[in-house]
Every structure is written in structure tokens, then in C-alpha cells.
Amino acid sequence: MIPELGLFALIIAFGISLVLSAVPLIGAARNDATLMALARPAAWAQLTFVSISYAALTYAFVVHDFSVLYVSQHSNLVQPLMYRISGVWGSHEGSMLLWTLILALWTAAVALFSRGLPDVLLARVLAVMGMISAGFFAFLLWTSNPFERIFPVPADGNALNPLLQDPGLAIHPPMLYMGYVGFSVAFAFAVAALLGGKLDATWARWSRPWTTVAWSFLTFGIALGSWWAYNELGWGGWWFWDPVENASFMPWLVGTALIHSLASTEKRGVFKSWTVLLAILAFSMSLLGAFIVRSGVLVSVHAFATDPARGVFILIFLCVAVGGSLALYAWRSGTVTSTGRFSWFSRETALLLNNIILLTAAAAVFVGTMYPLLVDALGIGKISVGRPYFDTMFTLVAIPLILLLGIGPAMRWKKDSAQRLKKELSIIFAISLSVGIILPFVIDGVLNIPAGLGLAGALWIAITTLQILYKRIKTGARLPLSFTGMIMAHLGMAMFVAGVTMVMTYSEEKDVRLEYGSSYELSGYDFKFIGVKKVAGPNFSGDEGHLEVHDGDKKIADLYPQKRLYTTRSSPMPMTESSVDTLLSRDLYVAMGEPVGEDAWSLRLYYKSMIAWIWMGCLFMTFGGLLAVSDRRYRQKRLSGSETA
Amino acid sequence: MSMNKRSKRKLLVVMVLLGMALASVLALTAFEENLLYFYSPTMVKNGEAPGERSFRVGGLVVAGSVVRATDSLLVKFDITDNAESMSVEYRGILPDLFREGQGIVAMGAFNEKNIFVADEVLAKHDENYMPPEVADALKAAEQQ
Fold first, then answer.
1. Range of weakest confidence among A137-146, A248-257, A462-471, B127-136
2. Does B129 touch chain A (CB under 8 A)?
3. Which ipTM did the prediction report?
4. Which of B10, B28, B93 to mutate to test the interface with A (most CBs of A within 10 A)?
5. How many Cβ atoms from other residues are within 10 Å of residue A88's Cβ?
6. What is the C-alpha separation between A201 and A188, in angstroms, rounded?
7. Mutate to test the interface with B, among A383, A390, A576 (most CBs of B within 10 A)
8. Cβ–Cβ below 8 Å for A511 and B92
9. The whole model's pTM is what?
10. What is the 3-state secondary structure (H, E, C) of chain B?
11. Is the Cβ of A633 closer than 8 Å to some Cβ of chain B?
């Protein structure tokens, strides 16, 4: 009964989304206030019914209703409650339902926080979001019904993929979707502005906080996925250039460009039509990501859907959304003129360069990800693009981006002088370069130029960023939160660059065969294999190794990696639980392989230099984004808006 | 002075263009060098696979073919597309889902003794999941 209720609520939500897509638009065209006023309650009603539907599926998971096919495929009686709740988005159908729930949440949030918006604009924005919702509801109902029943009802279900039974991964998809879907708000604002033919700087001010929040979630979601892969997959890497990772990275790169371009548009009235195009592009990348993950075209750890109808549906939806909005852009953007004038040597130019670099990076990822798909679709052959391609491309892109990250924020709007800037930055440049190069020598006794240059880049970003902070504090003025947020995010980039550099240049890894009691030395640490004992959990059994790590005579860590066998699935599934000892300066990482002969195991040992800085940097960027949106500027706009309304 | 400024600007534009050209060349080279082609065991038997360059090969792990050394991490196994099969050598830890009958993809090259040595062996994270290349290779072999 409850599952049918869920399906019924989903159908009603679909109906509401259709009303939301059409009626407010008609109202806006006819300037009919009653029709336009329907947008807000429709957004709320849509959220209510998707929530009911979502709650119904969660309930089915919680009470073990195995008559629902999806529940029986992804949970069983012994699965802990937490992973039954997160099991809802553990596979295709449920995660699409989560996608629509989050989309409805963003739509309702726009309805709630937009009291200052002109009614016509709000009607159009919500209508565009309604169209996107309608597309995804249709996708769920026609190709991916999560409430499908099975008969006979199995006594027990097949468990959730054990890889997904991890707290980090449990919250990874919701965070990622908050980001992906969040870009739909900027997209809706862009399309609404194009529809109205009025693209002024206020458009940028309205979409800016939405974009920044979405970007923060996306940053956090990607970082969480990377952290999970590092801990859970037992490969010790933090980024694999897997097509699905790329699918989330492309919207991130375009979204980052969008944040910076929105700043120029809002502050200086420049790049207006470019910003609109970026807003369209960012969400298109989100949709492309959905296509890549959901269509099953990929060879990837993440690709689960293999029903061709789903791929075709999303591809058509992608074409309609992207093609339609681009056509609208081509038709309308000609009327937009940028008002701000600026010299070629100014912060505007620096932000434009930032956009060019970030889009180049996105294009490089796009080519490496989509080219194999295209070649395969044309039946020419099966190829894949190796990791070194991406590594080379990103090293190339990183150099100008890092240089610019130091120069851009120090530049003045409109016009700056090269002399002034040179005076301000040349000392910092010299210091970061020399300290960066010397640092590996001081620590390690050996010069390491690639590491030195990377560290110099990180120092350059950090010092220039702190310098603008210092100068701002010295003026005695209050620090706006949006400024502090920017500082924090840029410092996050510095940490990230430092972390990536050190991981790439100083890490060591080794697959070894160790007998009980024997040890192996890696990067000066002595890994001693004590032994293995049996362990058992609610839905798995396995072996737990014990290793002692010594630095000279001192024992510094006990590591307990596990090899688990999840026995409750139709075929038992092995899982590697790595064990990691983390310090700011390094990670010591052990993953178990398998028994090799008597009283010996194959073990994977890693020494990872400063890898924690990668995720710390991402956290700084995330919080930087969130700080920036809490700026009073955006709140006051709302308050004054509601007073006049 | 203004002339000087203008020529400076020209120089900058030329440098940016040169930089972009250089970057494009590097990018294309990196792209070309890192393209990995996929071959099925049948294609490898027919001599279609490259002699020295790395490539990917995929198929089902033949039951009973997996031989593990007891004193090192060397593993030998055969993979098949149900028409032809070939041997693969790998030194290291295999993925969790590597097992007999499972579809896997191996990346590597032939060594001087004409043995395929894998640098990387991939098995997917779902026991019901078959790498699309392997699925296609099986289908192609069946049709022959």
C-alpha cells in the first residue's frame, strides 16, 4: 500500500511540475498576476509530493518490504538501519528519486528566498525549474520506477553493494547532487533573463549566491568521493580520471569559471552575455554528467544503469535543454551590451583569463572523456584515454592558473599599472620561488625541482592571498564575508596545490608478500606484519591483519586492515578495508591482498606525503564558498525586498 | 614611450599565442600517446594487437587457469572470449572481484618473450557487472 502511495505521489508531483512549467510562463507573457502567483505554491506542492514519494521508498527500505523490487535488490534483513536509509540512493532508481527531491528542494528554496525578485522574473525562473523537474519525473516514471513490485515476494533481499556501506559514501551522492542540481538555479535565472530580454547586473546579483552554494556542495561532494575512494577502494589513489569523476569535475570547472565571471558582471557590469552562456554551460555539464553516469555508456566503477532506453531518454532531454537554451541565447544575447569599460591591464582581464584557463581545463577533460565514447558509438574501435594524458594537461593548465591566482586578486578593477603590481608582487614571487625550491632540500637533503616548483606555486598563492588580506585589514574597514570567503577558498587552493605536489613527488607504494613476524621498510618506516585474526560483523566475516609501524626504535602506529567477505549477497563479495595512520605531514596506508602460501599475505603498503592537504584544501574552498554567501549584502537585499513587497 | 608600450603589448600577444600553440602541441601529443586500444583474445590471436605499445585486453578468467606463486606476488591466468584465449601475467595485488569466470580488463603489453604482462587488472565493483568491451567481445566471438 505504501509503495503505491509513493508512486501515486510521484505521479501527482509530475502533474504539478507540468503546471509549474506552463502556467507561470503564460502569466508572465500576458502579465497576468494571478497566473504568475501560482508559481510559488506550485513549487511548494511539488516539494511536498516528492517528499511523500521519497519517504514512502525510505519506509519500504526501513520495514524490509521486499515486495518492492528495488528494495529487495539493495537491502536485506541484516543490513544496518543507516545503510537501509542510505540504500535508497544506492542504485539507479532511488538515486534519481533523490535527484528529483533535491531539485524540488532548490525550487522551493528559490520560491522562499526570492521576495525581492520581480514577479515576472520569479515566475519565469520557477517555470524553467519546473520544466527540468518535469523531465526528470518523466524519466523516473517511464524508465526507472523505484516502486515496481515483484511476485513472489522473496524472503530476504540481496544486500546493498558493500562498497557503498561506508558513512563517507552514504552522504557523497546527496552532496554531489546538491551541487549538480544547484546549478539548475543559475541556469533557470539565465534562461528567465533571456526570455525577458533583460540582462542587467541585478541578474548576476540574484544568481550569484545560488551558484556559490551549489558550487560549495559540489566541491564538498567531489572531495568526499575522492576521500572515500582513497580509503575504501584499497588503491591508495585520490583521483583516477575515471569518466564518472570527470563527469563531476567538468561542471565544477565550468561552475568555478561561472562564480568568477558572475563577480565581474555583478561588480562591473562586464561579460554579461558570457556569464549567461557559462550559466547555461555549467548546468549542461551537470546534465551531461547525469547522461554519462545513468546511460551505462561507460566502462566505469560507477556505471550501473544499462537499460538503453534510459540513455536515449537522457540524451534527448540533454539535447532539448542544451539546444533550446543555446538557441534562446543566440536569439536574445545580441541585444545585451556590457556597460563597464576596462583597460586590458585590469582585474577584469585577469578574471577573463581565469575563465579561459578553467574552460580550457574543462575542454581537456571533455575530450578525454567523450572521445572514446564517440569512437565507440561510431563503431571505429574501443579505446580509452590513459591517465598520463590528463596529468599532462592539468600540469599545463595549472601553471598559468597558479600564476594568475597570485596576480588577479591583487589587481585593481578597471585599470591597473604594471609598475605598481610589479613593486607589490616581485618580492613575493622571488621569496616563494626560492623558498619553494629550497624546501625539499632542507627536509630531504636532495633537490627535487618538480616538488620545489609545486611548493613554490602553493606558497605564491598563499602569500599573495595573505597579503591582500593584510592590506584590507590595515585599512581598518570591516571585512565583508564575501571577501573573507574568497581569501579562504584561495588559501584552500594553495593547500590543495601543496598536497597534490607532495603526493605526486614523494609518495611510495609497494605490493609485498609478508610472512607473519617479518617486516618491510618503506620511505624509512618499518612495517612489521604481526599476524591475522578472524573478524565478523553483522553482514560480513573476514580477516583482520595487524601491522606495527616503527620509525627507528619507536613504534608510531598500529594498523588493522581488513579483508571482508560480505556473505549475505547471492554471491559473496570480498571487500578491502584499508587502515590508515594520518598526520598532516604524511599518511601510512595498508591494504590487504590475499593469503600467499602458509602464514603469509600479500599487502599493499603506501607512504603518502601530505595527502590530507588535498581534502583540507577542498574543505577550505567549501567553507570559503559558504562564508561568501552568508555576506550581509545578499541578506539585506532580501530584507529590503520584502519590505517593499 | 607609447610606441614602446605598444610593441611590448604586441610581444605579449605573440608570446601568449606561442604559448597556446606549444600547449596545443603538447596536448595533442599527450592525447595520441595515451590512447589505449582494446582487443579481444581473438583479435590478439589474429595478430591485430600492437607488438610493443600498451593496450587493453579483456575477457572472462578461464576456470582453473589461475596460478599463484607461493613465494612472490606473481599471478598467471588465462582470459577467453569463448573463441580464443590468451595468457596474462601480473605481479601485484589483484582487485577484490577478480575470480574465475569473472569478466576483467587487463592493461599492459607483450614483453620480449611474447608474454602479455599486465600493469593493471580491472574487475568491476559489482559481481553482476560485465565490462561492456568484454560483453561485446563475447558477442562477437559467438557470432563467428
1. B127-136
2. yes
3. 0.80
4. B93
5. 28
6. 16
7. A383
8. yes
9. 0.91
10. CHHHHHHHHHHHHHHHHHHHHHHHHHHHHHHHHCEEEEECHHHHHCCCCCCCCCEEEEEEECCCCCEECCCCCEEEEEEECCCCEEEEEEECCCCCCCCCCCEEEEEEEECCCCCEEEEEEEECCCCCCCCHHHHHHHHHHHHC
11. no
The cell numbers describing A151, all together, are 511476485
Question: Residues A217, A222, A223, A227: is their CA dihedral positive or negative?
Answer: positive
- pLDDT value of position B124: 67
**Residues in chain A closer than 8 A to B23 (CB atoms):** 396
Least confident stretch, A522-531, B1-10, B61-70: B1-10
Side-chain half-sphere exposure of A601, counting CA atoms within 13 A: 25
Lowest mean pLDDT among A240-254, A540-554, B98-112, B127-141: B127-141
- Residue A577's φ and ψ, nearest 5 degrees, are -105, 110
pLDDT in tens, A498-527: 999 999 999 999 999 999 999 999 999 999
> What's the grid cell of residue A385?
584515454
Whether residue A344 and residue B35 make contact (CB cut-off 8 A), yes or no, is no
Interchain CB contact of B126 with A (< 8 Å): yes
Tell me the chain B residues in contact with residue A603 when contact means C-beta distances shorter than 8 Å.
93
Confidence of residue A337 (pLDDT cuts 50, 70, 90): low
Q: How far is residue B28's CA from residue A249's CA, in Å, rounded to a whole number? A: 21
Q: Is the pLDDT of residue A641 over 50?
A: no
Query: Which pLDDT score is estimated for B2?
Result: 46
Q: What would the DSSP string read from start to end of A523-536? A: TTEEEEEEEEEEEE
Task: Give me the total of CB pairs closer than 8 Å, taking one residue from chain A and one from chain B.
Answer: 95
Mean confidence (pLDDT) of chain B: 83
If you ran DSSP here, which 8-state letter would residue A302 be given?
Answer: S
CB atoms within 10 A of CB A619: 16
Closest CA to A89 of A175, A4, A173: A173
> Cell numbers at residue A2, please?
505504501
CA distance A22 to A186: 20
Q: Cα separation of A302 and A91, whole Å?
A: 10
- Cell matching residue A517: 613476524
pLDDT tens digits, residue range B11-39? 777 887 887 788 788 888 888 888 888 88
